[in-house]
Amino acid sequence: MSFDENFVKEIRKRFPRIEKDFTGRKRIFVDNGAGSLVLGDAAKTESKSRIDYSANTDALYNESKANENILLKGRRAVADLLDAPSELNIYQGESASDLFFRISYALRGIFDRDSNVVSSYAEHFANVSPYLEMKRSNKISELRLAKLNREDGTVDLDHLASLVNRRTKVIAITAESNLLGNKVNIPELSKVAVENDSLLLVDGVHFAPQGYSDIKSMGCDFFVFSAYKIFGPRGSFTYISDRALDSMRPFYVDREAMPGASSYFEIGTRDQGIFSAMSSVVDYISSLSLDLTRFKKRKLPKNRRNGVRKGMERIENYHKELSRLILDGTEETEGLASMKNVILYGISDSKRLSERGTTFSFNFKNVTDKKAEEIYWKKFGITTVGGSHWNLSHDYYSNPSMLRVTFLHYNSLAEVEQFLRATKWISTK
Question: Does domain 46-279 have CATH number 3.20.20.70?
Fold first, then answer.
């Protein structure tokens, strides 16, 4: 089941900046790949926690205990979002890039000069840069990158599997490309990791707002995502498996820290506002599983985990509707897959929607990215962004700049139509 037009209208009411930006400019927001719009409830609870629970933890007075409770509730919410076994497997960081680095540092004890790390050309640079540095400093022998299938930009999983051996300590892979929108079969790679006793690190930053991040089905040891890509504030979270925790030697300042304690992996005092906001985000996603009447009344499911699963499944189904229109077009205009003077990257066959998300990267043959970005914004009020998007696919295609749009579940079918009309207009100039 997906969302009908009335449900989407109610969803849009939950996002204060969905129609206009802070200047009052009416626009269509599709720069969601760089950061989503903020859920109104998340902003409100974040603000309240900053004012009411600003005291530090580990004291007896009210504000301190309330702060501790906010952190605990936030960890449990993230555990529900990922279907993680416990909040003790959830850790928070300043950004996904920060977490990728700290994970690599904490795993330094498992590496030696004969070991290697396997990744792919579909990665955000943050997911591979720690291992490039390890290679430069002779901490590992190789960083091996799996090639892409050039025609559709998907990761060549056979090639990736061939790169993995018993000396592979980590497989670092994205769940969904932040540039091309293609998804990766993580459960398939989990089998490869298990066969070779490798740790599986999943970059879930771009995937988290797109699909159900079920780490049990994925079979991963790490799952990293950014709160601000999934309707919350700046900040990030990671799931870490018990097996991975046993292999880690993180930097920490708490002399009594141990696996399962937040201070084992988190450096310094946590920002309670981020945890509070994420609780609201997870409650919201869970409420998307309800019928329209209960959603409008802001009811919550009795079982939040089940609600999250059903809510994300509805999001995925709606995203398929959006993607089909973007690729194939509407009665009014053709889609990106067949539009003249448009070069589209990633999967373009609408029969393969389950293999991609709602991110689309492309170039015009007749207009530069910089000029197109200007036209989209000044003439049509659409937040399309060109340039580099920190993804190795730019290197693989020898293309330093692509225009990118990402549609999320608060974007309407009418906005897709307007985007396609604008794209068609630009393609004829």
Answer: no
